[in-house]
Write a structure and sequence with these properties.
Elements: H1 2-18, E1 22-29, E2 35-41, E3 49-53, E4 57-64, E5 73-79, E6 87-93, E7 98-105, E8 108-115
Length: 122
């Protein structure tokens, strides 16, 4: 019986250490046009990925930390047009969740990132 009691805490600890966690991004597009977002691990443009968010739309993305190629930080940029400046939020941690809002302004798009409270699942 003592052996089972000793193994259980070790097994739980191992499961916690090997469990992958995910970054949750709540994307809010306040523009009247769809926005193309690009999520890029800092210093690694080769593993960047894109997604299109419809106009006036809220979307939630859940990204596995493995998608960030071992990097600790990432950026997210949003463009509505190739002719106007896009908004970019930088130095976001893979250990945190964010609400990222893309707002329309006179000359392009602005990005605003707010850290979300730690979820119970993490």
């Amino acid at each position: 019986m003592r052996l089972k009691k000793a193994i259980l805490p070790v097994a739980v600890l191992a499961a916690c250490l090997t469990a992958t966690h995910a970054v949750q991004l709540q994307i809010v597009n306040e523009n009247k046009k769809e926005i193309k977002i690009k999520i890029e691990p800092e210093g690694d443009t080769a593993t960047a990925f894109t997604q299109t968010i419809p106009a006036d739309y809220n979307s939630t993305l859940t990204l596995d930390v493995k998608q960030f190629s071992g990097k600790s930080y990432f950026s997210i940029k949003g463009d509505t047009s190739a002719f106007t400046p896009g908004g970019k939020c930088e130095h976001l941690s893979v250990d945190k969740d964010y609400k990222v809002t893309f707002q329309n302004n006179d000359i392009g798009t602005t990005c605003v990132a707010e850290e979300l409270p730690v979820s119970a699942a993490k």
